[in-house]
Amino acid sequence: MNIFKIAIFGLCAFMFMTGCETMDTASKFTRPVIKKRVFDASYDVVWNAVLETVSSQGVEITAADKNKGVITFKKALTNKEAKEYIAPDSRIAWYRANANGEVLIKEEDVGKITVVINMSFRGSISGSSGPLAQSHGGDTSGVFEEKVFYGIKNLVSGN
User: Fold this and answer.
1) 31-157: what CATH class?
2) Count of CB atoms within 10 A of residue 131's CB?
3) Which residues contact 125 (CB under 8 A, 6 or more apart)?
4) Ranges of each domain in the chain
5) Closest CA relative to residue 136, chosen from 67, 73, 87, 81
6) Which of 40, 53, 119, 132 has the fewest CB atoms found within 10 Å of its own CB?
7) 43-55 vs 143-157: helix axis angle to the nearest 10?
8) How far is the C-alpha of 80 from the C-alpha of 140, rounded, in Å?
9) What whole-number distance in Å separates Cα of residue 26 and Cα of residue 5?
């Protein structure tokens, strides 16, 4: 009977400790990531604003097809940028991270242009003895998207 009580106590303690870790990690994500915005402007104005704003973020534009409404880009991130652009995870210290992204631009209605930003991150992580030979993915923190949407808004409102 004592073994049963010890097992139940151990299970409860494990669940309590795991729950606390989950709450700590979850509390870091206090706001949703905005990946889509609608702008009140012509397609050409928004397209040019997106190109200018994305380029100003120091990325390499790998393709830009205005007819399809797609811009793709990539960027090798510094450690500072990785901490800023990749959603926080207390267990990961990025060593070499790369961002790949695409911006989708679509006219939903006359003068209503939808812009969607999709980001993905891959990189190596650092362990206590240096870089590990593993590749990891990361979710966006929303900071890059926020900067781009802010830039587009400023350029579009100026026209």
Assistant:
1) alpha beta
2) 14
3) 92, 93, 94, 95, 131, 132, 134, 136
4) 1-30, 31-157
5) 87
6) 40
7) 130
8) 14
9) 31
CA gap 95, 59 in Å, rounded: 19
Q: What is the pLDDT along the chain (159 residues), one digit of tens a residue?
A: 577 666 565 555 555 554 444 434 444 445 578 899 999 999 999 999 999 999 999 999 999 999 999 999 999 988 888 888 888 765 567 777 889 999 999 998 888 999 999 998 888 776 666 656 566 777 888 899 999 999 999 999 876
Angle at 95 between CA 29 and CA 90, to 5 degrees: 30
DSSP string, the chain: -HHHHHHHHHHHHHHHHHHHHHHHHHTT--SPPP-EEEEES-HHHHHHHHHHHHHTTT-EEEEEETTTTEEEEEEEEPHHHHHHHBPP-TT--EEEEEEEEEEEEEEEETTEEEEEEEEEEEEEEEETTEEEEEEEEE-B-SHHHHHHHHHHHHHHHT-
